[in-house]
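lol ok so funny story. i was supposed to be doing the assay writeup but got distracted and ended up predicting the structure for this chain instead. priorities right. anyway since i did it might as well share w the group, maybe its usefull for someone
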Amino acid sequence: MATLRELKGRIGSVASSEKITGAMKMISSAKMHKAEQELKQLLPYRNQVQTIIASLLSADTPMTSPLITPREVKNITLVAWGSDDGLCGAFNVNLFKLLISRLDYYRQTYGESVNVTIIPVGSKMLKAVQKLRRQGVAVAPVAGIDSKADAGSIRKMLDTLRESFLSGETDKVDLHYMHFQSISRQRPVTEQLLPIVQENLLGNDASAQTGRPYIFEPSAEAIFNAILPLFLLSTLQEVFVENRAAEQAARVMAMQSANDNAKKLRDQLQLEYNKLRQQGITTELLDILGGQIR
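and the output, tada:
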């Protein structure tokens, strides 16, 4: 049985852990709200780009671009996001599980001979995908890219992906990341970046496709090909920020759970301490009373 001193030490340790997890929760919450604000700032730009594209597509001129032209899929590039830091619950595990399912889907859809190149973003995902190296699956991390990449690094990464697609080195580029829905709900998803899907170009704003006549200068197709890279950049930036927000949300929930468990354990230890202390006092009183009777 533990002594009073041992129990008191355990209670102190658990109380310290409770303070640490509480502080980490507050820090992660602040980072999550910052990422949410970044998402809100990106939204108007992305909506405007989609509105312009919708107006171009509503013109009589047919739009062509190598960025929207599908082809036979023999080589796939899968950009897989994770986190660089731990203590975020099942965040990376859920992403990795869907990644495994995605690889199986590629085999079933495009045949066993399809080649997949995984570009991990984040040290946790890099470590996880190393075990997936086998025939037909390669891992190719990009130097200078992590889950906290800035705008310049994201632009360079997009240029690399686009050149790889245009040169025919890869036939399809997918983005695998955690979709941020709320602080308590994040969902791993895989979306196609290249070739661009027309439904993604139009977005959810159906009203943007209607309406007003435009005079395009130099031409609608030239503007279309010039704005497509901007659409790709806004998409990639949004994925980085959204995954970062989801990571911090998962960490908030993990720290909340750890804090609750620490509080529960502290209460149990405190109860055990009080019982043991009361038992000691009772024993001393009985000894005193026994001595008086004798």
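The beta strands are 75-81, 115-121, 137-139, 172-182, 185-194. The chain has two domains: 4-30+255-293, 34-252.
back to the writeup now i swear
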